[in-house]
Amino acid sequence: MIRVQQVKVPLKHTTEDVKKKCAKMLHLSETDFVEFHIVKQSIDARKKGEIKYVYAVDVKLKQKEDKFLQKIKGVQVSPVSENGYEFPKAGDEPLKNRPVVAGFGPAGIFSAYMLALHGYRPIVFERGKCVEERTEDVLHFWETGILNPKSNVQFGEGGAGAFSDGKLNTLVKDVKGRNHKVLQIFTSAGAPTEILYENKPHIGTDVLVDVVANLRKEILRLGGEIYFSSEITDIFVKDEKIEAIEINHTKKVKTDLLILAIGHSARDTFAMLKEKKLTMEAKAFAVGFRVEHPQAMINKLQYKGADMKYLPVAPYKITAQTSTGRGVYSFCMCPGGFVVNASSEENRLAINGMSYYKRDSNNANSAIIVSVTPDDFESKDALAGVVFQRKLEEKAYALCDGKIPQQLFLDYKENRKTKEYGEFESCVKGKTAFTNLRGLLSSGMEQAFLEGMDSFGKKMSGFNREDAILSGIESRTSSPVRITRDELFESNIKGIYPCGEGAGYAGGIMSAAMDGMKIAEAVREKYYPAF
Fold this sequence. Notes:
This protein is 28% helix and 25% strand. By secondary structure, it is α/β, with parallel strands linked by helices.
């Protein structure tokens, strides 16, 4: 098998056109291909009027490929290793009790899935509800403002990522093939197959919830158990090793092994773990506002006015350094998306962005966020970042009595309350109200945000337009805590494996899922199921 890069075709094309172009580049006929697979699709939009789709393809030839590679010139082509992801062989230490997974977001799902696939019959406890019931609770909250603290955008089957854009790209270096394996598992559970080759794959919250439900069913079929509305409220430690956990302050479950995949919003669990002397530390994250623009404007900027008939709605990624020393950057960009109320605690308000699979709302939105470090926190305590987040969210809640506070960018600059939308209205899930967002961030963070927006306006004309819609507060960009783990991925309390975004080792669906796989591999390499 050989891989051919930079196979460029017009916007209007078919898979057969890609195959023909590849054959032409290699000076071969399509009949010389034994196999043909698209492995990557991207868009080259650098030149106006010359926007093209760009593919990388894997081809198996009838002739000897090593000799062919020696003589081919002027084409980016290389041999492809056909070795895929391999789960390790079992270790020689007996695991006497079934492993427990706390949390059923991407990290918990994939650690449980891989263990179930290899006979470990994991027991999963998730504080929220199954995704079907959770979806009803979330919709009810958006319609009425009545929050269920145990079942919301942050808590429940699928984790916080279930109500996001469903982005499946990551910057994590991946030499073991975990990334592609995660995508394969998603497609086996009903995700569209194009995620296997798109440069920035996404499946949208509407598709993701069905995929998550199918993964749950497969884990159950493989012998796992999953309990919803089941929060870990205590852990029991003997000789610096876990021996049991408590569920909902009532039920005690014996276990030798606990995978902590609790998510970045499990603040009460963080507090309990701190009391139990689990080693953790405060970490940096970022805060800011969701900023909305008309999606048509972003499309025109990114695609230079090209015909949208054969193009997906355009995303963007943008960064700036400011005079304050703080970085400002876009995060969790949602083309054709919605701003959503993502609160999980009473009298505190947090927001996020979300898109459906079709990404067909009128607006693009992204979190435009300012970097925050432990130096910004009031103390050196491990949970000082949680305190920082909560205070921001309390201020945001108070601005409009729990409604999402919004302001136009010009009004933010001029420090005055907004009275009405400009040329476009917000695409939002949850009740909103106009206010003045100034004072929500510190003065230094406000300055960084303003500098960042004006800097982005120079890079993308109109980004800092007067009627860009700001919503606050984006405070859950990543975990405020890192639970330390050793080279074998265990915490200072043996048998506890911190995992995923909540533990501070991931930043999105894919990286969390891959970390979940990594933990399952570590368990496999050490233990064999002896129960």
